[in-house]
Amino acid sequence: MNNSWKKVLIESTPQKWIDRALKSLDILLLDHAHCEKKAATTIISLIHKYPEKNLTQYLLPVAREELLHFEQVTELLKKRGIPYKKLKSGPYARSLYQKISSEEPYRLKDSLLICALIEARSCERFQCLVPFLKGSLQSFYSRLYESESRHCELYLNLYTKIFKEDWSLRLKPLSRLESNLINKADPLFRFHSGF
Ligand SMILES: [Fe+2]
Ligand SMILES: [Fe+2]
Domains plus CATH for the chain? Predict the structure, then answer.
């Protein structure tokens, strides 16, 4: 199992978020479904924006996997009698994407790093939740931990492959922002929210 995700996160999820998540599993699952769908659409838009980078061969399998996760979460929602519906998204991803450079090649660099960061936090949150869950949700989240961990590593490797440089320096300010976003009280509970 790879542990790349540990290298990109500065801080762990606060216990208060875990406590809130366990009391809000319906919202967590609904938001999680939207996150998987967004992960797939983000990849499609990267493939669309950068045809010259040949991202398809690396990222299309990931997009397919994210869509499968989306389908699996929606099935879980159905089984639990939770209707799939729109949900106001939290500020987490939006705040990170606001930091993306408007100039290339920095724009693609930041995009890949933010994708890696979001995958890393998802991974860490699955790991936080798994010991407290039961049955099918526990085994599902354990499997997702493995997939999202692989995705995180793939984005980081893709960065190195395309730009022939180490990603750690450019990641630092984004990691700091990410850590601030999860370490504050948040009126809106979401999969990637603060507490
Ligand atoms: Fe996923
Ligand atoms: Fe993923």
Answer: 15-182 (1.20.1260.10)
- Ligand 2 centre distance from Cα of residue 158 (Å): 14
Q: How far is the CA of 24 from the centre of ligand 2 (A)?
A: 22
Express each pLDDT in 132-178 by its tens digit.
999 999 999 999 999 999 999 999 999 999 999 999 999 999 999 99
Q: Up-side HSE of residue 186: CA atoms within 13 Å toward CB?
A: 22
> Could you read off the pLDDT of 43-86 as tens digits, one per residue?
999 999 999 999 999 999 999 999 999 999 999 999 999 999 99
How many angstroms separate the alpha carbon of residue 38 from the centre of ligand 1?
9
Q: Work out the mean pLDDT of the chain and round it to a whole number.
A: 96
Q: Which residues contact 133 (CB under 8 A, 6 or more apart)?
A: 141
Q: Give residue 66 CA to ligand 2 midpoint distance, Å.
A: 6
Residue 66: DSSP 8-state: H
Q: What is the distance in A from the centroid of ligand 2 to the CA of 188?
A: 23
pLDDT in tens, 168-179: 999 999 999 999
Instruction: Provide the sign of the torsion angle of the four alpha carbons 184, 187, 188, 190, taken in this order.
Output: positive
